[in-house]
Amino acid sequence: MRISKNKILYSPTDLNNFVSCKYHIKNDLLADEKKFKKREISADLKLRIKYGIEHETKHFKLFKNKNNPSVTINDKLTDEKRFEATKQALTKGYKLIYKAYFIEKNFRGEADFLLRVNTKSDLGNYSYEVYDTKITKNLRPKHVLQITGYSYLLGKLQNLLPRHMYLIDGNNKFNPYKVNEFIDYFTYTRNRFENLLPKLKKSDIYPEKCSYCQYCPWLDVCEKRWGDDNYINQVARINKSQVVKLKKEKIKTVEALAKTSANKIKSKINQSTKIRLVQQAKLQEEKRLTGKSKFIFNETEVGRGFYKLPKENEGDIFYDIEGFPQSEKRPFEYLHGIFYLNGKKQEYKSFTVKKYQQSEEKKIFVELIHYLKKHFDKYPDAFIYHYNDYEKRALKDLSNEYSSIFPDGVNFIDKLLRQEKFIDLYRVVEQCMQTSEKDLSLKTIEKFYRKERSAKVKTADDSIRLFDDWCATNDQKLMKDIISYNEEDCVSTYDLREFLCKNKPDNIPDFSQSDEEKDMNSEFKDFEKREIDLINQLEKKRNKENTKIVDDLISLVGFHRREAKPDIWAYYDRMGKSPEELEDDPECIGNCIFINEIAEENPKRRRFKYKFNDQNFKIKEGAYASDIFEKGIGKIEKIEEIDENENFIEISIEKKRLALRDGMPKVANLGPPSSPRTGVISAALYKFIEDFSDNKKTKYKCIEDFLKNNYPDIKSLKSGGAIIDYSKDIIDESINAVKKLNSSFLLIQGPPGAGKTYTSAKIILSLIKDKKKVGINSNSHKAINNLLLKIEELSAEENFKFEGFKKSSKEVDKFNGKNIRESRIELVTKNCLIYAGTAWLFSDARLDQQLDYVFIDEAGQVSLANSIAIATTTKNIILIGDQMQLSQPIKGTHSKNSGKSSLNFLLEDHDTIPLNRGIFLDKTRRLNEKICKYVSDSFYESRLKPHAITYERKVSLSLKDIGNEGIYYLPASHSDCTQKSDEESKTIKKYFDKIKGQEITESGKKSKITNDDVMVVAPFNMQVNHLTKVLGKGSRVGTIDKFQGQEAKVVFISMTSSDPENIPRHKEFFFSRNRLNVAISRAECVAVILFNPNLLLTQCQKINEMRLINNFCKLLKYEC
Length: 1120
Hints:
Blueprint: E1 2-4, E2 7-9, H1 12-20, H2 22-34, H3 43-66, E3 70-72, H4 79-92, E4 96-104, E5 107-117, E6 127-133, H5 141-158, E7 164-168, E8 174-178, H6 183-200, H7 219-229, H8 240-248, H9 254-258, H10 271-290, E9 295-297, E10 317-326, E11 329-342, E12 345-352, H11 358-378, E13 384-386, H12 390-401, H13 407-418, E14 422-424, H14 425-432, E15 433-435, H15 442-445, H16 460-473, H17 476-503, H18 515-523, H19 525-541, H20 547-556, H21 559-575, H22 579-583, E16 589-598, E17 605-612, E18 624-627, E19 631-643, E20 646-654, H23 655-659, E21 667-671, H24 679-694, H25 701-708, H26 730-739, E22 745-749, H27 756-769, E23 774-777, H28 781-797, E24 803-806, E25 820-822, E26 832-837, H29 839-842, E27 851-856, H30 864-871, E28 874-881, H31 902-907, E29 918-920, E30 923-924, H32 929-939, E31 945-946, E32 953-956, E33 966-971, H33 982-995, E34 999-1002, E35 1005-1008, E36 1014-1018, H34 1021-1031, E37 1036-1039, H35 1040-1043, E38 1048-1054, H36 1067-1070, H37 1073-1080, E39 1083-1091, H38 1103-1114
Parallel strand pairs: 3-4, 6-7, 10-13, 13-14, 22-28, 22-29, 23-26, 23-27, 24-25, 24-26, 27-28, 30-31, 33-39, 36-37, 36-38, 38-39
Antiparallel strand pairs: 1-2, 4-5, 5-6, 7-8, 9-15, 10-11, 11-12, 16-17, 16-21, 17-20, 18-19, 18-21, 19-20, 32-34, 34-35
Helix pairs in contact: 1-2, 1-5, 3-16, 6-38, 11-13, 12-13, 16-17, 19-24, 24-30, 26-27, 27-28, 32-37, 33-34
């Protein structure tokens, strides 16, 4: 940013800074007046600039050799003359333009390269696309925003927005991006920037801490202001929401908090946290006044703090990892450092990559595991000490990612986790110690137990930048500096352990593994041996022709164990929390105090009432909950939120279960139920793997076709030909294709309202008329029951009778129709034609190869592993679903394709099924023309069209700002909302009350809008609970997941969160393209989406996050 002739000239770089922090721009504007100084450019940054110029020059020479004629725009000219020279070069049609310069009013930009392409524009039979070089191997969203800005400026000159743009990274890889996937995000960011810029200099905005601070050149300026103001954000371990709450109580400084009694703070912060924050403020305030640093040890509860310190062992290891952030995946773990005592001698060992390659990361991980296994064989009672949870999390991710090619890794790390061998000293310090410092980072608290560091590299950010430079230069001095930094961290961890052991009270016992954990260790050995045997069998089967399928099957071995691990480890993490800490965990309702037993209508159950403090939680009425410390507890019958201290929950439990307990707990801490057991599904998957490994020709041809991703094998159809003729009746064509399947598979994609349930039912009915045995499967009983109901309806219309059965374990999931009844496999007769149930039913060995067809509904939510297990029962498999709607919920870390759903595995990056791959149901009977156009263009490659019936459906809402058809955006104005927004709830309530009783016209018939015609969708259970309370009983309120497959005349969507800092889950969940599609496409006539526009002004961590937010930016044009 620069000022010229009283004009503020800016570039895409300034937009990136604005997105990161508005105060960065304010400091830019005030710099000259206030004599602010930026941080000096470091030596390594200067080096990066030098390497970047060399990288750009190299590619200029390569481009120039292949693209003549070319021209270079002289960058010594004035801005205006450079712009004129660029326009002339575009007009002359050079194949390559180097250093093109753009001006649009105050917006400026210089692109490294413009290359000519054969797409018509106002320039002639050609146009240009942008190429830019970046020395980094880790491309970031800021780089994409930059070239999007250049592409926008170029588009203005040629009157055509380029289709593609490119970044050339430090690996010399050309990375293409579609301009239309980012242009709306760029436009919104620029508009917000230009609107705020004239007011920013005089605005009273205050600098707040954010994730960008560590990178900001103005950090010293902001820190000085915070220090001068003694601002409350200086208190160690205070979060943003707590700052906001305390400021509302006029507590704005550290001094004010230090002088406050915890009991007088009214904000919704649990009591133990209030006490900690006040005590912390007192310590820091004492240091501010005296200049002396200080630490204290607090009394801690059993199982926390000092209770987590084991007895010192001669084999103890002190461990630290160095990772390099990667924009679209987990960090690249390039260095593992270990410090230990060899007798009295201190030793350090590092495992370091030689190149920035995944094979190198895997190599050093394997070396580390072999080393640790040997070490723990020698020192079985030793522990691994680390500081904060990064090391443990990284090892989990590495072991899971490489589990298929190195199962010893995942098995050994699992063993260490079960044996509780990882000791996180950060948690120990956090729970028993407070200091006068502003944070608890290892570097900050070192002053209390060791001398100042001697290594050149001082921070993790420095090491990241040095590693990036090392990748570009292979300068071993840089790697040596990083290794020295890592060694300092390891030694500091050792010194901290010694300091804590020295100060540990004598009456606190040493930490040791529980007997329960010891029993678990032998339980897993059989699983681990079976998985290793399977991988070995597959390796023996490998040849040139089957490498892909062998790789995919190896990656699937252990899938269900990996998928269950996050829940298991989350459970153990919660076991280490206090009831007060569980109050802050949104997955729980903590500290529920028993009141009394109350009346229960069900004679087989008893009901109990508990009281709990006001807290944010996701648990809903009707859910089954576990007690964190006592395991299973019962069903949540009722939750009643009254005020901060008067909230009640009613729990019912079966009498026979209660008899096995020692009564109900006096204090209950409710958490999510445990994961379902998947052993039978794994067994079915492994059955196929063994058959594939042991036989020249597998008996499961449909699974092999599926895994090879062949074209569907359809009799009388040439391989690769179009599956159906869309000019004919699509249901007749679909039936014909399914009947001609030759022990193969077929995909049917059903976009919103396209009639996939009806189409599936018609196909199934036709098959059972031919006496074919058909299985019906889905992840949810609800989806299965919907399809069964449609089959019953159609069979009744045709007076066709048959025998079918459904298997359910819960009463609420059972289905009993005229032809299809609840039963069990052992009771089914030979005349049974329909078999319905979840993956557990279809993994039963008694059904192996017994069916002619299996239909998997909502296949986009069914894992690849489960799909294979299910398909062992059948000769043909039909996958029905829509990969553009809700996807498979994955929790574990999986390699290659094993984490994908069956649809995503087959279709990869296609938004719609290609003509030769499956059937696309291309007419929606739900979405009216306006909603359909947005949904079709945004998610279905413009292939989805409204059916004629949609034109016969209308609503008359009688609203001034919202019309009677289409999509509408209502800007929401609120702050500090995370998972609950009262403002959005009130707005929806206002419109909800107005439209009830208004007119609906459908196929000529008129009716009134009722609760059933209005759906309210929110991303979080907390907002769902709040909206239900505001709108009253009978209102249709739920999460996006709840309403997939449902529809309403009018849909309200409440996005809830105030801004990026308040989004409680990762951005890829919150801004999910699939979830947005599902939310909007529930609406038949009108979709109203509410969100705070500040949500879109977010610093994206991944390029895909920017791509997703772009979809929300498109909605701004629907503002009402």
